[in-house]
Every structure is written in structure tokens, then in C-alpha cells.
């Protein structure tokens, strides 16, 4: 295993060291906001201690990244495959345009998480947020799954505002006691039945295992699933120039 | 009303000549005047000038400012500015003699100066940069004052008129230089402003130039990004700044400078050995906007050396002659033969290939 | 409803003396204008469906067809023109947003046509490009601005990655989806043969076209369609699309209908799903975020490729460009308001943005004023219609030009401006296999090669006339231009003198 000391070293040098490492397992210590860690990488296992900088695992293509600490903006931006686990919270725009792989966040995510996530063939992106999410969660959602567990929210709706605006594919699953009411017209909401739960349970179990939560308790709670309404899509109504 | 240099761009044709003693021997201005006189018909009486190197050995460590003044007020203001930034160790009128064909002379003054240590330190600039910025600023902003020479142990002498008359006017027989360059101008449209004559100088770099370049505005708009101000709108001015920038500021050799401003054709570059190909491609690409096109032959004078360069298509004539340790370069062979009938060697350099001569062992001066 | 009835703008005129009832027109028209009238034993046309694309005219063996503008008219009104009236009817009937394609057709000033070019007389020789060397090879990318030497004093090549163009023209971004497979094949082959580049647009890169990677610019836009590691590595450069001249500030929408099996693969989205490009990049809400995206792409490709940033020409384009230049971009692409599009809201297309001539002049001057012109190359498009436009753009300060519409025209586009229908009879802006196959990629690429070769010749001819034998010496050489019929203000923005000055 290779260990890289980040400290106050500029990200370019840190990432050069990570790329140059012979080992597939790399630990990066004392990270203080270094950007793009693991960016575009394929078969690495990178452990980050500290505060991961913007663009953590951007374009990730199969590597695993585990962060002990928080991560900043644009975690897993345009990620294709792999797994990012954050033992903390993440900033804004997490999982933007993510096509595949999984992101597990122990705590909260900022604004605009999971915007324009999409699925394709074997690619199916999943983002699991333990706490709560900022506004515009899953805006333009085109595929994949966003799961917000609302831990510590006492059953309250765990998203700020404007959840799922422009959603035209995929699913958003929220743990809360009552169905959210201020959702856009184009989003359908329904309570997750026991049958449906089998689809989501593996991710909840994995979350519990990763972060030491009580899986049984989480699984026994009430969840709502948001899906796009095919009858009321976001299609702009057009008329053509003669 | 006719517009002078700086108000309108004036294309010009010309004659050039240069003498360089590699052993540092100094000669007075008589022969360089005789040389340029031979090419009288290449000029039209609207500008002539000379640059001599090694002429002020007693003030070798001081910048010699040669300045034209249109008015007494401009002189006073300029002198105030010089005094604010420099220590003036000597000042005087530049001696001239009455000449029937040189008229309407401005006041012509000379100052030997050195930057005030406190000002220089406060500017956080290297001494030459400090001085060049001062010169550019005065010429750009002070109406009626024009510093036309600003190097150490060298000087430019120029005026409106035929170059041989200009040489007599400035009494160049009284100056001794190891390197002389000279220029007779044939502008197409000018009232004949003294500042517009060649050589054009910044610090110790002087340029005399024959031909009208077609890349002018591309070069000008680029070089002005680096603190230069092309106030005269002449080719020579922009070429001088390019050479100053590449040489003094970026640290290129004169041969590298030649590879930038007269970069070989891509087809020529392709034919080189890989290393040379890479070097030439790099210089041409990295400094693309400083390539100069159109006809030109130039003589670049600098402390201890002289470079002659033709455009890469060789659209202007230029010959080089050698006799012992002396090198002669001129637009026409006759201008060399008239002062040195016997030559060891005479050749016409290829387009884009610089001829660079330097003092041997720094000369004996 | 009767008020919504609009008389067709174009009429199909059939010379029945010439018509041999071969029904070629009927087979050629995807808009189903022509049909066989069995009762009367002759061909008929429903001109309400005609888009004036000329496919039937071009293929009629007896030249029996022509399309004419109708002389049917509303009462004349300079304010409420027929177009203005029709648009109200159309929107009142449908409640829809007016949608159209290609560039702004309105009669605004075309500054290219008000700029004249210099030539040498006497004081400087003109050069004959047929006999003497004349160079238009162009490098795009950041210049170092300083030299470095190794311990032996030799120059160290300290240039950032560059794009090398044999001629200063590239094909601008047009996605697979907005145009057909065959159109992409033609562009890719032509770019390779010419030694220049084409651009994937935001449609991903078809597996078949990875072979043209060294001549491909791969685009990263807000929807990130088809963006993954291999894609980024496939291209010679990566272009971040921030905006498009035809629709600044607007995203895109490829309807699920057009997302067939092949397009689904290149965009990496399921078949039949809508491909929506958000208006902004949601990881860029400020200039420092652009820097973040630029460097993420450089990190992902290990600093081996230039990163380009494409912006639309809008009011404060000079300031934006300055910010972009300082964000690590190697090349800035500016798209003027006449640039084409596969579909844009008409009001946006016709009212948002500024002319590329003014934008270019302002950007180039601004970058020079700030001393950073050499930090980036500047590429302009939207719209460059011929080699004179190209030359004027370079003299104003561009390093190279992008052409989109001109390239489509070369392949057969007749500018009927109905790309959004997906029924392009020329096989370009369509995904219907029977239409796509009408465009032969071999012929298409040859025509593109012909066009650019001809422009390059003309460019050289004009350069020779002004005594310039290398494109470097033309770049930003505004003294080579003069304005005609322009106000002082316009001349000032363009940074050129008036003819006669």
C-alpha cells in the first residue's frame, strides 16, 4: 500500500503521486481540500483522511474511494462506475450527471445532489444519503436511484425544497412519516410497499453495514418513492416556424 | 494638414549601411557617410540617421539620452521628469553645424544619466527596465519631447534630410565608433518629422530598416501587451520593440530572435534534423505573433555586436563584405566598395538567415 | 379553426407539360407534399407541408418542378408583417413556444459585408500564392510567454498541448442525434483528410468514429451525454460547451423519439428516453467553478490535451472571455448569434446574443488590453460564410474559425430550417434510415474537402495580395481592414478605420 501525505501540497502534485503509485491501494493522509482525488481512475482503492476537495472521484471509472472526513463540492461528478463512501457529509452538486456506480454518504448532502443522474445498460447509479438533502435533489433526474434515509430528522421530510424538478426518469426514495406535499406536478409520489422495499433494502443494508447503523430499524420505517409522471412530462409545447 | 508619424501609418522604402570592427577598432563617421551617400537615390530627403557604438567611452556607465524638443516648455517639463528619476552627470546641446539642406531643426539635447538609487529600488525593477519604461512613458505622454537615443556608450543621430547631409550636420567626424549603422529614408507620405527618421532605438538596441512589413498591425497589437507603446506607427519602431522584448526580456539569443521574426517556412522546417525541427517549430509556434512578413532588411545594432537580417523571401537586397576584422553590410555592393574597394569576402545572405557579428573578446575598448 | 388557417408560404409549381408522372418527387419527399391523384391521373402537391428544401426539384428528371414564394398576402403592414401575424395565430391556436432551426435569418447588419480588405501597391509587393510559399498552418493552444533552457542552454519545449491545423478552419460542434451518422462520417473523414478537426457536439462518440480521434474534438456539455474516460481520451482536445450562439442561455432537448439504438449507445442513455441538456452546467455557477471543471478534465487526461471553452457571444462577452482565459482554458470558442442549431426557441434564436464580428473584436482587444491574448487561442463561428469572412475574422484577431452551417450546405443542406422535424430530405438532420442513406459519406466528405481547399486557396490569394505569406502575420492585423458604411462607434468597436482613412 502506498501512502501519500497531502498536507498543504498542491493537488496537482498529490494526484501525480496517486497516479504514479504502483500499488492499487493508496492512502492519502492529511487531505486539506486537494481537488480531483481519484479523478477518472479505474481500479484503485483510495482511502482519504481529512477533508476531500472538490471533484472527488470526478469521471470515476471503477475505483473505490473511502473518505474519513467530509467531502466538498462535486463528489462523483460525471462518474461512470466505482464506489465512493464518505464517513461524513458532502457539499453541493454531488453525483452530478452520474451514470453508474454508488455513492454512500453517512451524513448530509448539500444542494443539487444527483442532478441529471442517468442509467444506461449495466450502469445504474445509486446515491444513498444518511441524513438530509439540500434543495433541488435529483433535478432533471433521468435514471438511477437516490435514497435519503433522514436519520436524525425525526420522521420529517428530509429534503429542503424543489425535490425532483424536471425529473424524467429514475427514482427518489425518501424516509419520512408523511408523503411530501410540495412536489412538482410532474412527479408522482407513493408509499413504498413491502414488495417494493426488496428493491431498496440492499442499499439500506449496505449503508448500515458501512456506517454501523441499525439496519433492521431503518428497514422498518416508512418510505416514499418519487417517480416521473409519464402523463405530465416536462415537454415544452412547441409550434413550428412556417 | 499632413499628419506626422504617430498620427498615421507611413510606409517607407530605404537604404541601409553598416560598418563593424570585430577587433574593437574605432573609426569616425566619415566613411559611413561616404557609404550611404553612394545610395543617394534610395532616399528622398525625408529622413536620415546614424547609430554609433563606443562613442562615449568617458561616460560608458551612463545612459546617454538624446532628445528632440519642439518647445522650451517641453524641454523644461522633460528635464524636470528626468531629474525626478535620474542623476544627470552632464547635459549639453548636441553639437551641429549649419547646413543648407537641414532646416527646421528642433532643439537637440544630450543628457548622461543614471537612475536615482532610491527611485530604482522603489520601482523593484531592473535598471534597464526602469530606464526603458521611463523612455517609453516620456515619448508616449510628453508632447513636444522625444527621447530618440537612450543606450550606454552609444548614440543615435538623425534628422530630416538626406543621410549624408545629416551626418555632416551632426559632425560625425568627431565621433569614433567600433560599430556604425546608417539609414537613408524614402517615406511615401510625411512632412518629415525628425523623430520619424531611423535608426530607431530603445536602450542600446538600434534598428535601421529597409522595406515595408505586411505584418505591422499584427506585431504592434501583440507587442503592446508587454508595456511597449508604438507611438510612431513605423515598422522600425515595432521591430525594435520585438527585438528588445525577445532579447532583453525573454533572454533569447540573436539567432533565436531571427528564427522568430524571420521564421523559416514550415516546408523548410520539415527538412531539418529532428532536434532542429523541434526547436524551430517551437520558436515559430510559441512566438507566432512576432513573426514579421513582407519585405525587410534590417541592421540591428547592440552593445558589442551587429545583426543583419533579411525577410525569409529575401524581398530586399543586402550584401555583406569582409576585410580583415571589419565587416561591411549595405543595401548595395557599391556602398561597400566605395569605402573598401578590396574585400576578402563578399556575399548576399539568404533570406531569413541572420548574419551576426560580435566583438572578439569583448574588443579592446 | 378558420382563423388558424395559414396559406402556405411556398407554392409548388409543376409544369404538367414536362411532368412524366414518374412519382420521383413523391418518393423523395419525407414531408409528403407530393401525391398521385388517381382520379385525375396526375401528380398533385399539398404545399402546406412544403419546407422549400428543393429535394424534389433537384431530383425531378424533367425539371418540371419549382418552388416559389407565394404572392398570397395579408394587407400590407410594415409593423404587423405577414410573419408577425402568422406567429400570433400559430401560438393562439397551440399555446406553444415557437421553435425553429438553423441561424437567425433576420435582416440585421452583417458586419463582414461592411469590411473591406487591403492589398499591396508599390511600397510592398504582393505575392503569388500559386508559385510562392503561402502558409496557413495554425497552432491552437496556450503560448508559454517565456523561454526555459536546460543545463546546456538549449531551449526546453515548454508549450502547453496544442492543436495543429493545416488550415485555420474546423467543423463546429454538431451532435450525432442532431445530424445523421453519415453526416458525422463525412465530417470525420474530411477533417482527417484535411488535417483539421471536427467536433462531436454533446452526443457522445460513435464506436465507429474512435478511429478519427486524432482529428476529433470531444465535447462536454451540461448533460454530460456520452462523457466517460475513454471518450475524453479519444479526442485530440476537449471542449466544454457553456453556450451556443443560436440559443445562449438555453439547454437542449433531443426527444426520446430520436433516441434510437445507435444514439442511445453514443449518448449512453436508454433507447427512447429524452436527452435533456440543462441550461447551465450544474457544477458551474460561477467563473471559479469553470476553472474547477477545466482542471478536472486536465486531471482526467493527465494534462495531455488542450481544453477549449465555447461561449455564446452575449453583451459582456469580452469580460466573460477574459474570465475564461484566466480559468485555465487553452482555447476560447465564441459563437455568434447567427450560428446554427438543430432546434431553438425562435424568440431566443432571433433576439438573444450579438454579432460575432463585434464580439470577436471586443474579446481580442480586451485580452490584449489585459496582456493575456497569448494565454489562449480564440476560435470564432456563427456565422462564417466564405473565405472573405474567414480572412476578416483572422485579421480582427481570431486564430481560427469554426464552420457549421457552411459545412452542412456543402453536404447538401438547403437551409430550409426545419431540422427540428427530423425529416431532412437530404439525409443530414435526420435519423430515419431511409433518409440517412441519401447522404453518401464518401461524396459528403469529398465535398467538404473541396470546400475547405477552395477557401484555403482564396485565403492564400487574398493574403498574397496584401503581401502576407504566413497566417501569423494576418492574425489581429486590423490595419489590413477598412470599414464601409459604418458609424464611428461601430468602427471603434471593430478597431478599424473607415475606407479612405
From TrEMBL, chain A:
Annotated Glutamate synthase alpha subunit C-terminal domain residues: 12-178
Cited InterPro entries: Glu_synth_asu_C, Glu_synth_asu_C_sf
Top-level division of the source organism's lineage: Bacteria
Name listed for the protein in its UniProt record: Glutamate synthase alpha subunit C-terminal domain-containing protein
Record organism: Butyricicoccus faecihominis
Organismal lineage: Bacteria, Bacillati, Bacillota, Clostridia, Eubacteriales
Amino acid at each position: 500500500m502506498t501512502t501519500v501525505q497531502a498536507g498543504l501540497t498542491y493537488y496537482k502534485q498529490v494526484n501525480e503521486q496517486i497516479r504514479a503509485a504502483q500499488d492499487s491501494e493508496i492512502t492519502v493522509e492529511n487531505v486539506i481540500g486537494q481537488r480531483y482525488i481519484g479523478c477518472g481512475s479505474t481500479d484503485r482503492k483510495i482511502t482519504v483522511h481529512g477533508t476531500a476537495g472538490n471533484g472527488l472521484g470526478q469521471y470515476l471509472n471503477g475505483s473505490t474511494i473511502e473518505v474519513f472526513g467530509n467531502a466538498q463540492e462535486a463528489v462523483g461528478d460525471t462518474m461512470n462506475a466505482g464506489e465512493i463512501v464518505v464517513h461524513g457529509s458532502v457539499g453541493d452538486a454531488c453525483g452530478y450527471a452520474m451514470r453508474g456506480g454508488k455513492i454512500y454518504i453517512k451524513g448530509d448532502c448539500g444542494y443539487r445532489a444527483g442532478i441529471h443522474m442517468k442509467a444506461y445498460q449495466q450502469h445504474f447509479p445509486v446515491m444513498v444519503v444518511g441524513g438530509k438533502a439540500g434543495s433541488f435533489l435529483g433535478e432533471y433526474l433521468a435514471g438511477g436511484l437516490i435514497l435519503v434515509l433522514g436519520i436524525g430528522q425525526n420522521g420529517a421530510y428530509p429534503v429542503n425544497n424543489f425535490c425532483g424538478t424536471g425529473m424524467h426518469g429514475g427514482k427518489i426514495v425518501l424516509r419520512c412519516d408523511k408523503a411530501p406535499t410540495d412536489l412538482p406536478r410532474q412527479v408522482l409520489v407513493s408509499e413504498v410497499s413491502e414488495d417494493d422495499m426488496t428493491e431498496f433494502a440492499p442499499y439500506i443494508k449496505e449503508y448500515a453495514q458501512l456506517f454501523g447503523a441499525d439496519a433492521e430499524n431503518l428497514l422498518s420505517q416508512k418510505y416514499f418513492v418519487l417517480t416521473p409522471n409519464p402523463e405530465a412530462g416536462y415537454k415544452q409545447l412547441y409550434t413550428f416556424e412556417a | 494638414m499632413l499628419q506626422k508619424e504617430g498620427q498615421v501609418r507611413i510606409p517607407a522604402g530605404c537604404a541601409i549601411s553598416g560598418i563593424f570592427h570585430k577587433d574593437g577598432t574605432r573609426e569616425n563617421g566619415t566613411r559611413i557617410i561616404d557609404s550611404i551617400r553612394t545610395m543617394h537615390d534610395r532616399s528622398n530627403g525625408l529622413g536620415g540617421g546614424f547609430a554609433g557604438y563606443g562613442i562615449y567611452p568617458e561616460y560608458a556607465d551612463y545612459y546617454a539620452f538624446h532628445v528632440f524638443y519642439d518647445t522650451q516648455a517641453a524641454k523644461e517639463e522633460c528635464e524636470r521628469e528626468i531629474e525626478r528619476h535620474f542623476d544627470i552627470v552632464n547635459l549639453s546641446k548636441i553639437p551641429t553645424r549649419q547646413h543648407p539642406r537641414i532646416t527646421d531643426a528642433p532643439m537637440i539635447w544630450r543628457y548622461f544619466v543614471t537612475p536615482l538609487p532610491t527611485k530604482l529600488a522603489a520601482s523593484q525593477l531592473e535598471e534597464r527596465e526602469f530606464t526603458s519604461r521611463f523612455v517609453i512613458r516620456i515619448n508616449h505622454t510628453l508632447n513636444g519631447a522625444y527621447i530618440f537615443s537612450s543606450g550606454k556608450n552609444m548614440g543615435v543621430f538623425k534628422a530630416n534630410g538626406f543621410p549624408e547631409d545629416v551626418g555632416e550636420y551632426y559632425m560625425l567626424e568627431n565621433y569614433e565608433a567600433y560599430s556604425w549603422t546608417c539609414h537613408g529614408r524614402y517615406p511615401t507620405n510625411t512632412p518629415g518629422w525628425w523623430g520619424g527618421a531611423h535608426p530607431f532605438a530603445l536602450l542600446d538596441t538600434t534598428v535601421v530598416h529597409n522595406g515595408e512589413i505586411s505584418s505591422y498591425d499584427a506585431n504592434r497589437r501583440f507587442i503592446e501587451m508587454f508595456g511597449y507603446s508604438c507611438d510612431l506607427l513605423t515598422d522600425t519602431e515595432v521591430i525594435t520593440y520585438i527585438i528588445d522584448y525577445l532579447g532583453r526580456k525573454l533572454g533569447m539569443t540573436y539567432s533565436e530572435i531571427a528564427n522568430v521574426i524571420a521564421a523559416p517556412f514550415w516546408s523548410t522546417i520539415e527538412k531539418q534534423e529532428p532536434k532542429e525541427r523541434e526547436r524551430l517549430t517551437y520558436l515559430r509556434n510559441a512566438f507566432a505573433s512576432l513573426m514579421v512578413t513582407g519585405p525587410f532588411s534590417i541592421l540591428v545594432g547592440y552593445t558589442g555586436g551587429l545583426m543583419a537580417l533579411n525577410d525569409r523571401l529575401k524581398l530586399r537586397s543586402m550584401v555583406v563584405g569582409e576585410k580583415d576584422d571589419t565587416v561591411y553590410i549595405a543595401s548595395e555592393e557599391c556602398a561597400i566598395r566605395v569605402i573598401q574597394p578590396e574585400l576578402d569576402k563578399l556575399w548576399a545572405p539568404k533570406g531569413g538567415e541572420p548574419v551576426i557579428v560580435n566583438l572578439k573578446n569583448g574588443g579592446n575598448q | 379553426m378558420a382563423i388558424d388557417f395559414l396559406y402556405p408560404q411556398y407554392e409548388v409549381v409543376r409544369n404538367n407539360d414536362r411532368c412524366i408522372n414518374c412519382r420521383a418527387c413523391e418518393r423523395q419527399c419525407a414531408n409528403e407534399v407530393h401525391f398521385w391523384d388517381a382520379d385525375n391521373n396526375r401528380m398533385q402537391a399539398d404545399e402546406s407541408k412544403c419546407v422549400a428544401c428543393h429535394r424534389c426539384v433537384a431530383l425531378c428528371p424533367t425539371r418540371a418542378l419549382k418552388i416559389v414564394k407565394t404572392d398570397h398576402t395579408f394587407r400590407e403592414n410594415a409593423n404587423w408583417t405577414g410573419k408577425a401575424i402568422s406567429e400570433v395565430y400559430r401560438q393562439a391556436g397551440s399555446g406553444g413556444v415557437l421553435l425553429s432551426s438553423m441561424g437567425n435569418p433576420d435582416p440585421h447588419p452583417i458586419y463582414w459585408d461592411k469590411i473591406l480588405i487591403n492589398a499591396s501597391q508599390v511600397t510592398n509587393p504582393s505575392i503569388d500564392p500559386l508559385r510562392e510559399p503561402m502558409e496557413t498552418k495554425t497552432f491552437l493552444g496556450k503560448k508559454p510567454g517565456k523561454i526555459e533552457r536546460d543545463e546546456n542552454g538549449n531551449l526546453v519545449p515548454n508549450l502547453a498541448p496544442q492543436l495543429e491545423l493545416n488550415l485555420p478552419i474546423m467543423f463546429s460542434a454538431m451532435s450525432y442525434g442532431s445530424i445523421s451518422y453519415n453526416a458525422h462520417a463525412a465530417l470525420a473523414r474530411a477533417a482527417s483528410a484535411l488535417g483539421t478537426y471536427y467536433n462531436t457536439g454533446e452526443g457522445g462518440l460513435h464506436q465507429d468514429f474512435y478511429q478519427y480521434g486524432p482529428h476529433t474534438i470531444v465535447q462536454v456539455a451540461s448533460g454530460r451525454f456520452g462523457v466517460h474516460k475513454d471518450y475524453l481520451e479519444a479526442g485530440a482536445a476537449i471542449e466544454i460547451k457553456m453556450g451556443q450562439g443560436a440559443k445562449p442561455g438555453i439547454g437542449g432537448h433531443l426527444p426520446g423519439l430520436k433516441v434510437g439504438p445507435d444514439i442511445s449507445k453514443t449518448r449512453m442513455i436508454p433507447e427512447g428516453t429524452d436527452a435533456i441538456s440543462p441550461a447551465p452546467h450544474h457544477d458551474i455557477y460561477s467563473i471559479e467553478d469553470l476553472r474547477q471543471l477545466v482542471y478536472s478534465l486536465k486531471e482526467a487526461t493527465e494534462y495531455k490535451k488542450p481544453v477549449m471553452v465555447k461561449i455564446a457571444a452575449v453583451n459582456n462577452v469580452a469580460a466573460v472571455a477574459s474570465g475564461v482565459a484566466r480559468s485555465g482554458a487553452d482555447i476560447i470558442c465564441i459563437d455568434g448569434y447567427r450560428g446554427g442549431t438543430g432546434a431553438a426557441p425562435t424568440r431566443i434564436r432571433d433576439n438573444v446574443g450579438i454579432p460575432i464580428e463585434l464580439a470577436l473584436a471586443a474579446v481580442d482587444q480586451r485580452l490584449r488590453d489585459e496582456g493575456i491574448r497569448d494565454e489562449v487561442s480564440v476560435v470564432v463561428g456563427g456565422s462564417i460564410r466564405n473565405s472573405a469572412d474567414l480572412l476578416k475574422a483572422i485579421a480582427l484577431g481570431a486564430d481560427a474559425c469554426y464552420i457549421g452551417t457552411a459545412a452542412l450546405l456543402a453536404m447538401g443542406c438547403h437551409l430550409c430550417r426545419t431540422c427540428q422535424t427530423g425529416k431532412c430530405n437530404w439525409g443530414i438532420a435526420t435519423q430515419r434510415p431511409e433518409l440517412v442513406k441519401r447522404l453518401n459519406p464518401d461524396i459528403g466528405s469529398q465535398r467538404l474537402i473541396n470546400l475547405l481547399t477552395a477557401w484555403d486557396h482564396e485565403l492564400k490569394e487574398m493574403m498574397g495580395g496584401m503581401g502576407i505569406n504566413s497566417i501569423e502575420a494576418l492574425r489581429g492585423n486590423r490595419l489590413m481592414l477598412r470599414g464601409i458604411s459604418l458609424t464611428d462607434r461601430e468602427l471603434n468597436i471593430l478597431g478599424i478605420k473607415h475606407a479612405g482613412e
